[in-house]
């Protein structure tokens, strides 16, 4: 069940014996994809790097991960139909042709994309995804970009911000789609939903 405000989240314990240790969001997505395509359960994920790891407070310390003091957390998962093909993302989906012009859409399960604090008010286990959708002029875009590190780019009148469990996005032309930092193709239609508590992550 997704976390509610004021409730405790997760626990402390050792890395489960069936856990898969990954160092990037893309590696975590590959584990999820393999499990889902084979019809098996997604194994627990020990996170040593990536934007989801940072969001969960992970430090990349493998000794800590394998100690009895690791933090064990249920986490949501993003699922998306990219022009009809089902795929998953653990941290974020980005639809853009360029950072400098045109529409940019970020669908966030994690808080960060690299150094940027993209979704400062999000939570990776609240049963919702944070959507930021903007089409800004160049000058404004540069100002917004300079505020991304601190997470002060929102609220902004040129950025539509939503917190949703599901949505459909229509793009005016084929746009590159990146899941957890990896280019997976181009699309004009995206059908996106959250899978609450679909992951067990250890940091």
Topology:
Layout: E1 11-13, E2 20-22, H1 25-38, E3 45-47, H2 51-55, H3 62-65, E4 70-82, E5 85-89, E6 92-96, E7 104-108, E8 112-113, E9 116-117, E10 129-134, H4 138-147, E11 159-164, E12 166-179, E13 182-202
Parallel strand pairs: 2-3, 3-13
Antiparallel strand pairs: 1-4, 4-5, 4-13, 6-7, 6-12, 7-10, 8-9, 10-11, 12-13
Explain what you see:
This protein is of the alpha+beta class and 203 residues long. It has two domains: 11-76, no CATH class; 79-196, Tumour Suppressor Smad4 (Sandwich). The chain contains four helices and 13 strands. The chain has helices spanning 25-38, 51-55, 62-65, 138-147, and strands at residues 11-13, 20-22, 45-47, 70-82, 85-89, 92-96, 104-108, 112-113, 116-117, 129-134, 159-164, 166-179, 182-202. The two termini are 20 Å apart.
Q: Say how many strands there are.
A: 13
**CATH-derived architecture of the largest domain:** Sandwich
In whole angstroms, the N-to-C terminal distance is 20 Å
Overall outline:
globular
Radius of gyration, in angstroms, nearest whole number: 17 Å
Mean pLDDT: 88
CATH topology of the largest domain: Tumour Suppressor Smad4
Question: What would CATH call the class of the largest domain?
Answer: Mainly Beta
Helix content: 10-25%
Query: How many structural domains in the coordinates?
Result: 2
User: What structural class do you assign from the helix and strand content?
Assistant: alpha+beta
Order of helices and strands: EEHEHHEEEEEEEHEEE
């Amino acid at each position: 069940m997704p976390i509610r405000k004021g409730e405790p989240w997760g626990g402390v314990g050792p890395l489960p014996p069936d856990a898969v240790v990954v160092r990037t969001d893309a590696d975590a997505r590959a584990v999820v994809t393999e499990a889902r395509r084979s019809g098996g359960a997604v194994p627990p994920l020990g996170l040593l790097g990536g934007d989801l790891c940072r969001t969960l407070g992970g430090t990349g310390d493998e000794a800590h991960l394998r100690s009895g003091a690791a933090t064990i957390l249920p986490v949501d998962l993003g699922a998306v139909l990219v022009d009809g093909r089902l795929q998953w993302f653990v941290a974020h989906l980005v639809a853009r042709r360029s950072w400098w012009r045109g529409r940019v859409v970020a669908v966030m399960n994690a808080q960060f994309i690299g150094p940027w604090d993209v979704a400062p008010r999000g939570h990776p286990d609240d049963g919702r995804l944070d959507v930021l959708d903007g089409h800004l002029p160049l000058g404004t875009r540069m100002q917004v970009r300079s505020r991304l590190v601190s997470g002060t780019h929102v609220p902004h009148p040129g950025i539509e911000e939503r917190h949703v469990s599901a949505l459909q996005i229509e793009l005016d032309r084929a746009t590159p789609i990146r899941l957890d930092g990896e280019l997976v193709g181009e699309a004009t239609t995206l059908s996106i939903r959250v899978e609450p508590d679909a992951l067990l992550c250890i940091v």
